[in-house]
Amino acid sequence: MQMIKQKVGARVRELRNQKGLSQEKLALAADIDRTYIASVESGKRNISIVNLEKLIIALDTSFAEFFEGM
Amino acid sequence: MQMIKQKVGARVRELRNQKGLSQEKLALAADIDRTYIASVESGKRNISIVNLEKLIIALDTSFAEFFEGM
């Protein structure tokens, strides 16, 4: 059941790398602490939808695109 | 920014009604408290992805289908 945390983390990392953003830059854009982003990307964080929305906006994507294929 | 809570709530209610499930039945299937589901559906709850995954599985859908168009 906890796989979703790893899948979301991998997707954040994938989109961040595609956009050529460092964790620091994404953290600044999303107004979220860099260490929080590191824990999301490593699949350790049970992120809330409001924080996920901040990341999705900062990554210039949508919930639909983010969860494509999940 | 907080609109996502209302959108997710409306989508849970829409899918639940489509499947002809009461909040009690969905709560049982998802192993989540009924009052929690009521607060999600009314847009008050900043749900985590692990709890959202429980609802998505209980609604027999996927993250991709759940967030279609969002």
From TrEMBL, chains A, B:
Entries under InterPro entries matching the protein: Cro/C1-type_HTH, Lambda_DNA-bd_dom_sf, TransReg_Diox_bact_type
Record-annotated HTH cro/C1-type domain positions: 12-66
One example GO MF annotation: DNA binding
One Pfam family in the UniProt entry: HTH_3
GO cellular component: a single term: cytosol
Signal peptide: none
SUPFAM superfamilies in the record: lambda repressor-like DNA-binding domains
SMART domains: HTH_XRE
Alphabetical UniProt keywords: DNA-binding, Transcription, Transcription regulation
Protein name per UniProt: Helix-turn-helix domain-containing protein
Organism: Fusicatenibacter faecihominis
